[in-house]
Amino acid sequence: MTLRLKLFALFAGVTFFATTGVTAVALWREVIRGQELLAREGGALASSGAAAAARWLGEDGVAPGGGQPLGALAHRLLASAPLDRAWVVDRHGAVIGCASRNGGPCPEGVGPSEFQAADWPLQALLRLVTPAGIVAGAPVLRDGQVVGAVEVEFTHDEVTGSARDLALGASVIGAFWIVLGLALAAILLRRVTRPVVSLVAAAGRLAEERGVQLPEPDERELADLVRAFNQMSTRLEERRDENQRLIAGLEERVAEKSRELLRADRLATLGGIAAGFAHEIGNSLNVIRGFAAVVARELPADHPNRADVETIRGETGRAAALIERFLVFARARRVRPMAQPIEPILREAVEVVAPAAAQAGVARALEVEPGLPEITVDAELLRQAFLNLCVNAVQAMQDRGGGALTVRARRAGDGIAVEFTDTGPGLDAETSARIFEPFFTTKASGTGLGLAIVRQAAEAHGGAVEVESFPGHGATFRIRLPATRREEPPA
User: Fold this and answer.
1) HEC sequence for 117-142
2) Superfamily of domain 335-482
3) I want to staple 148 with a disulfide (CB 3.0 to 4.6 A). Which of 140, 202, 383, 426 is the partner?
């Protein structure tokens, strides 16, 4: 059963029971009122007959010759009103005179009384079902004594006729109001359920269609419901667009990562092959350099080929050094970290570069912030990275006739930052973006692996390296390293 049918049945039941209930109460009260009026009218008729019957009734019964007048009295009462019967009884309840419209006998009963019991309310409704009239009576008084009674009984049609007319009119009126109530209920339910049905249908389309919107009805509650649905549809549309953008972005990132992984796999393969070639070439260069050394040792100092042999030795040595640094970068030996302070490692790297700095006219300065936390690093690998940065700074300032190198170690958040600042020629934006790439160099005789090894060392310890530089204003290389995490002692 649908909601519309349930609500319609509810309205119909309420209208029917309300209308029939009011009609039944009104009918019942009108029937009681009509029967009370008939009882009073019958009592008045009986009283008028009782005054005439007092001439023929006494304490000893009917006076001689009184039977005929009392019978005539009963017939006159029967003719004066719509009665079924009229009769006169003595003080003992015996019928003295009787007149019946259908010729039936008159009932005998108890003796007459000055008072007559009133009908109880249910008897008024029972007379509508059972064919019974209303009996009214009046005592016959003589010398202050009750000597008999006059009884009258109205016809059943007289008792129920007005009730039937009233019931018919009430039924017509009730049917009219029931039909009107059901019509209004149908209109109301249509106005209430139509937006609900539309809302249900729109909710079903919301999974497939986009931007479903419904017109707002006039009723405030339904308008609030439809407005909430429209807002939900709008938010779903926004979320759907956002999800599509996210999915497109994720697909693009996945594709990019897939290309990067494929490229990295190829580079790893090529790196392994290149490392193998470099190792074999290095062995050959060592052999060539060894034989060149033997030849140079055996040749006289004034031999014309001695300069060529020395050139061979120098170039093979340079090539061997390049291959050795390439192998250091490619093999990326395993890090053996240990918790230790950074100052001894940094100070040793700055002191190692002292002779080259003095020859190039570069002043050195080391600044270490007090109370720095320890770091967990491989001292040898980190010392090599610091030394590469110091050497690069000295070489950059050597062509300008000298300068100043300032090395600082300070706290940076939860870790340590080590800065190498020089007063050299600086770097442009393009060079700064590529300075840490392998084999990228701005030096005529450089290998392009020094700063790549620096970045490799920093990342191997969970840190990072960055550069800040402007052309003509020097450069600052900064290595960030995390501090050692100390576990709290047990309580």
Assistant:
1) CCCCHHHHHHCCCCCCCCEEEEEEEE
2) Histidine kinase-like ATPase, C-terminal domain (3.30.565.10)
3) 140
